[in-house]
Amino acid sequence: MMNQTQKPKGWKILVFALFLGPFFLAQYFRDTRHIYPAARYFAWLSLLALALSACLMFTFTFSPFILRMGYLIVFLFIFGLVFFYCWGIDAKTSSQPPIAKHRYSFSRACVWMIVMGLVFLGLNNLIQAIYFWLLGEQVSVYFSARANAFKFWIPVGLIYGFFYGLRTDNNYADRDPGAVVKSIFFIFAFISLYNGFVLALIVYPLQRLAPISYNPQLSEILFYILLLTTIILSATYLLGTAGRRGTLKSSGIFIVGIPLIALHLIVLSTYTVTINLVIASILEDRQQISSAKTLYAKAIPYIRYDNLLASLYHRQGVLHVLNQDHESATASFKKVLTDYSGHYEVFSKARRYMDAFERNRSKEKLGRKILVVRHKTFEQAASCFPNSLSVILNFYEKQPISTRKLSYAIKESFSSGTFIWKAESFLKKNGYELLTTYWQSKKTLISLLEAGYPILVYIPGHVYTVYGYDSRVEMFFTYDTAQSNRWNDKPFWSLQRDWMVGSFLMSVVIPKEEKENFVARFPQFDR
């Protein structure tokens, strides 16, 4: 990496400290402990302030915005103390080390800018492929199609390469092959770690929260800007100093330092609200409904975006329905109707649920059935059928075929959809029958759910799984990849309206040995 022997001084330390946070102070004053022996204790104090602020912010003990200001003030105060301490040490030192003089070359900087831009881009594409294959079924992130989200590595590589090549004493051509390989490894590790955080903290929340009308607000935009700036600065610092340490030691600094840097940025931007919304959404999938509702309720006071608030109140109402708490559900739906009439989709669904509740208020026995389903989404273009089918296979088997293999087995191509006949053929080979019929009704869906069968519902160009219903508010529960892989709710009327366009086409997957009894019970599937 860079042959940096001169450590940053003055305003450079302030810039690095503001963006890299307590980690930079701890690492910098660890490296200079022979000059400033007590400075590292100030750095540890700043780490303690970061940990405390993050804990209070994630638990919503105090307002995230107040905590951000408090943390920033405390951090700058500690930095001021350590600055004056170091200034006092330097003032007592009679002889200052000579400042190294470097030669600079603009033409070399331009050459290395292009080289590093290509290196960063190539390694990023490799890392993207690795993440896709390793995590495609564990994390609902569309790695391949979202690769454009990582094109920021091109300017990062260009900037890093420019400043690397600006000094004439930096030259990979003069170094042994082992040192070059080591440098490439550090760049690979650096990009891998930051890509992981970008996926987890930016791409995944944008997709996960899309069905509740999540859009970046000021805090989120501030986080994005801080993160991009920090990546550039940390490339200069971490990659620039990695060459002076051993491989294991530098790798450990990367592994510990980058998460601490990310936490520092989260606290500075109050990005904890978004993270808590994502956690609540994940808790829904794990059937921890009460915990999800609690997190949503804690986050709501700190959100200023009306469409997101409308969707959150609506989502709380749906979770209350899942808990069979219809009175609380209607209170949430009423909040949407009275305060958020501008959000048409959520408003119209809430109105239909409220109308249904009023119609059915006096009825004592109403049907309700919600099947327990689980699923690992595989992200690929036109994969609604494999993912919806996988939900059903997960219902029958503890360890069914992976969604990735299922997608490759029944799809026509990477970006093409699935023919029903091809899914039928695959299922027959694996001991199942795909029974399909059309011109059915809501009554058929409810009868199948009561019998314990999740259902594939087809609309033109799309398919999703219906796995539950609640007649008191006339709500179906669905798994719909068009809703960014969220467990979704649909009013009876809305589902039938969309379903009608596809001639009320539907399918049920059953084990082969159950076919005879199933057809006897549901003769409309006999063909």
Secondary-structure element pattern, one letter each: HHHHHHHHHHHHHHEHHHEHEEEEHEH
Proportion in β-strands: 5-15%
| CATH homologous superfamily assignment of the domain at 370-525 | Cysteine proteinases
User: Tally of extended strands?
Assistant: 7
CATH architecture of the domain at 370-525, by name, is: Alpha-Beta Complex
How many individual helices? 20
Computed over alpha carbons, the radius of gyration is: 28 Å
The poorly predicted ranges are 1-6, 143-147
| The CATH class of the domain at 370-525 | Alpha Beta
CATH topology of the domain at 370-525: Cathepsin B, Chain A
The profile of the biggest β sheet is: 7 strands, antiparallel
Shape: elongated
Instruction: Report the end-to-end length measured between terminal Cα atoms.
Output: 70 Å
Chain-averaged pLDDT: 85
Summing up helix and strand content along with how strands pair, one would put the structural category as alpha+beta
Kindly state the percentage of residues in helix: 55-70%
Q: Tell me the quaternary state.
A: single chain
Structure report:
- With 527 residues, the chain is α+β, with helices and mostly antiparallel strands.
- Among the domains are: 275-364, Tetratricopeptide repeat domain (Serine Threonine Protein Phosphatase 5, Tetratricopeptide repeat), CATH 1.25.40.10; 370-525, Cysteine proteinases (Cathepsin B, Chain A), CATH 3.90.70.10.
- The protein contains 20 helices and seven strands.
- It has helices at residues 11-20, 22-31, 39-58, 64-92, 106-135, 153-166, 177-208, 218-242, 247-269, 272-285, 289-299, 306-322, 326-339, 344-360, 384-396, 403-410, 420-429, 442-450, 492-501, 515-521; strands at residues 368-370, 432-437, 455-459, 462-470, 475-480, 486-491, 506-511.
- Strands 1, 2, 3, 4, 5, 6 and 7 form a seven-stranded antiparallel beta sheet that branches.
- A hairpin with a 2-residue loop joins strand 3 (455-459) and strand 4.
- Helix 3 (39-58) packs across helix 9, helix 7 (177-208) runs parallel beside helix 9 (247-269) and helix 11 (289-299) packs antiparallel against helix 12 (306-322).
- The termini are far apart.
- The model is unreliable at 1-6 and 143-147 (pLDDT under 50).
